[in-house]
Specification:
This protein is α/β, with parallel strands linked by helices. Helices cover 26% and strands 22% of the residues.
């Protein structure tokens, strides 16, 4: 299953908007990642709403029994609220048994006269939707991760009781809606695998995506050990950055292993992966590499992600980016204004993507402007001072050393 377009009407910050996404089965084969769409914009512009709307439209046939609580989804303004609508168009792969061609999923959001809990109404369920009740089904694969990604400790005795109360399809995207959702650590499922071929594929994919911390293939331990700089470190002892990154990738691969068709390799899995704030806790080097690594490791997976990072944006091409901006309290969707691939962070931050006048500290910019104005009077020393400030920053405005008099 892939999502090709999404239309939002009176949903959260959106009055009316239409978005189109890159997918592995798209005809556009130009420069860029054919399975990645990056949604960028300021805080409150609606990035998370886009991911959540895709998730809800994808599991619409089972929403009524999913355990999902529709809290404040319809657009609310000072003048009141009215019915909101999410329309999404999906296409299917051979893995989506029973479904062919295109499917338009519509979810109506009806706000109450008072309060914040909306009522959802989905279009009539198609015949193939019965397959969605099968948690082990290889088809209709959609998984999502919110900006709060908490991994259960490997020492926890938790039994994931949430799985008994929620529909398995909703559980795969619940992190987009609920901060309390915990992700599965590797130690809760990988050590129990007796299929050496599948185990090798999981380890290979994880290491291909993460890159710098290598999961050690050690069937003799119930813990997950990683090789970091030549030292073996258990998952719980890794830094926050490593745990945040490895945590959601490991949980993602868990769902991939549950959904891959029999006889297929894990990297052949098709579906949709929704990741909010993909750069969360990432070192700049990872930010530059994460999307190309994901796209290459799982070429049949469609990745739709959000970010604030210019390094992440600079790793993709113009066709991969959608820009959201606020206009009088309404979210507006725009295509990427310029090609971004290969631009520096400064160039991207001062481009129409972010619109910053400068990436320097505001106080320093004021002093720089003052020196520039004074230098225009023809003072050569101030002109030189301005150039030093441009290249050295704050170091250029440190008190100059006293000149020593030279005796004649």
């Amino acid at each position: 299953m892939y999502v090709h377009d999404l239309r939002l009407s009176r949903i959260r910050t959106f009055e009316s908007a239409a978005l189109t996404f890159q997918a592995p089965d798209s005809k556009d084969k130009g420069p860029g990642l054919n399975n990645v769409t990056l949604v960028v914009g300021t805080n409150g512009a609606g990035k998370s709403t886009v991911l959540r709307s895709i998730a809800l439209a994808a599991i619409a046939p089972v929403l009524s029994s999913s355990g999902f609580v529709a809290r404040s989804i319809a657009r609310r303004t000072k003048t009141g609220s009215s019915k909101g609508v999410m329309d999404a168009t999906f296409t299917f792969t051979p893995d989506d048994v029973g479904a062919k061609g295109r499917w338009k999923s519509t979810v109506e959001v009806i706000p109450p006269r008072s309060g914040w809990i909306d009522r959802l109404s989905a279009t009539e369920a198609p015949a193939w939707s019965e397959t969605l009740w099968e948690s082990g089904s290889a088809g209709f694969f959609v998984v999502g991760y919110g900006a709060t990604r908490r991994v259960e400790s490997s020492r926890s005795t938790g039994s994931f009781a949430q799985e008994k109360e929620r529909h398995p399809r909703f559980l795969r995207v619940a992190s987009l809606f609920e901060d309390s959702v915990v992700l599965r650590p590797l130690s809760s499922w990988l050590p129990t695998w007796r299929n050496p071929g599948r185990r090798k594929q999981v380890i290979g994919l994880l290491n291909e995506i993460v890159g710098s911390a290598k999961l050690v293939d050690d069937p003799g331990t119930d813990d997950s050990l990683f090789d970091v700089g030549g030292s073996r470190v258990p998952f719980d002892a890794l830094s926050d950055g490593y745990r945040a990154f490895i945590g959601w990738v490991a949980d993602f691969l868990f769902h991939v292993t549950r959904g891959v068709p029999s006889g297929h390799k894990l990297n052949e899995t098709a579906g949709i992966a929704l990741v909010d704030e993909i750069d969360l806790h990432m070192h700049p080097q990872w930010q530059r590499e994460v999307l190309p690594r994901l796209a290459a490791a799982l070429p049949r997976m469609q990745f739709i992600c959000t970010t604030h990072s210019p390094l992440v944006i600079g790793s993709v091409h113009q066709k991969n980016v959608l820009v959201l901006r606020d206009e009088d309290g309404k979210s507006i969707v725009e295509p990427a204004p310029i090609e971004v691939h290969g631009l520096s962070s400064d160039q991207i931050l001062t481009s129409p993507y972010f619109g910053l006048e400068s990436t320097r500290a505001p106080g320093f910019v004021e002093r720089l402007d003052q020196v520039a104005k004074q230098a225009r009077t023809g003072d050569a020393d101030l002109a030189r001072q301005y150039l030093r400030m441009l290249s050295l920053g704050e170091r250029a405005v440190e008190a100059p050393k006293k000149k020593t008099k030279v005796r004649k």
